[in-house]
From TrEMBL:
The chain crosses the membrane at residues 46-78. It comes from the Bacteria. Keywords: Membrane, Transmembrane, Transmembrane helix. This is PQ loop repeat protein. The keyword Membrane applies.
Length: 104
């Protein structure tokens, strides 16, 4: 139990700087979207195994991985969308309240 707790803290601590940098910079160009999707699918499948185990450090570690991987995927999707909008010069359907839209 002690080894599981220590390893959980170490694995989580090792991933926190990556997550903090991604949240602060909103720059996820160095990440692979397909790897993030596959990682999230793998985590969901692995959840079936984890919930069959008695409660312990593995549950905490797996919950941490579920949350961080899902957050990274959401940030990646938002970053990709923002890059696409920037590249096309604006949103696809500017509405009347879009900043910079000339009023008629």
């Amino acid at each position: 139990m002690l080894a599981g707790t220590v390893s959980t803290v170490l694995f989580a601590a090792a991933n926190l700087p990556m997550l903090v940098k991604a949240v602060r910079s909103h720059d996820l160009r160095s990440y692979s979207g397909s790897a993030l999707v596959m990682g999230n699918v793998g985590n969901l499948v692995y959840t079936v195994y984890v919930v069959s185990l008695p409660f312990g450090p593995i549950w905490v570690l797996h919950a941490f991985y579920l949350v961080t991987m899902a957050l990274m995927l959401v940030l990646y999707a938002a970053s990709a969308r923002a890059r696409r909008i920037t590249r096309t010069g604006g949103s696809r359907r500017p509405g009347p309240l879009t900043p910079g839209t000339p009023r008629k």
